[in-house]
Amino acid sequence: MKCPVRVSVRTEDDGIMAASTPTTEDAIMGSTTFWNGKLCFITGAAGGIGQAVAVAVARQGARLLLTDLRTDELEQTASAIRTEGGRVDFLRAANIADYAEVQAMADEIHARFGSIDVVMNIAGISIWGRIEDLEHRHWRDSVEVNLMGPIQVMECFVPPMIRAGRGGAVVNVSSAAGLFGLPWHAAYSASKFGLRGVSEVLRYDLARHGIRVSLVCPGAVDTGLVRTVRIVGVDRDDPLMKQLTGRFQKHAVSPEAAAGAILRGVEKGKYMVFTSPDIAAGYWFQRKFALPYDLVMRGMNRYLEHVRAKAGGR
Q1: Each residue of 277-295: pLDDT tens digit?
Q2: In terms of CB atoms within 10 Å, which of 71, 165, 177, 293 comes out highest?
Q3: Known catalytic residue: 293?
């Protein structure tokens, strides 16, 4: 697997910095960077952004502790990393929405390795739909995986980091849906806005302990999640919906590009990290031009309702 580690990343609230293409030396395992020798716990490492991040930090000399629900894909990630000479010191399939599983995993890691250096909450699910179509289980699943999952990981891993007194980093992957009121995203946004709020508080709470907090807000990223996202009340096989999904994928950045942006942002100690310039621009636009932003959101909602009606949504 190839994972570039130099891409565009937002560096300040009102600016984008374009970074250079990685050199061969950048990709060599064990190069001296922020990540070299760090114990990194990564959720969602079996695919998508999580897998790309795991590969990228391994190439920078990190020691990896990986988890995901999907056992086979997780083992494939670890095998690919080890083939390139990277270190995977711990590997376990687990459900981060299950507190007992997270606690047991944390207890074993701490017993074997002591406190870790970097927590990377990347695992997540995506469920979209109008409120009249969503069922209670859709709301619950979104919040349990996307919000309570990262909370439980931080609950189990961050206090030992504080007690160790070595500083470190916490990386929480939210979404553009944690910034904007996107149509049909109520359940998903409930979890992602929540994670954004937790991260905002911990950004300041953990600063005195030397622990950085980064909030990653990806836009379109071409991962398996794009192809498996649940859109309640809509036939995903309808040609119009396929066209809409295809348009999203065409606009999306690769997981490797997203991983590169995340690494750069964390290395520079940035709080808010964007994986594509359009989301950074949209966030700036939202704050500077509230009325036009409102009109854009309303227009998007009307457009998607039109597509839904044409696609035979119930």
Answers
A1: 999 998 898 888 888 878 8
A2: 177
A3: no
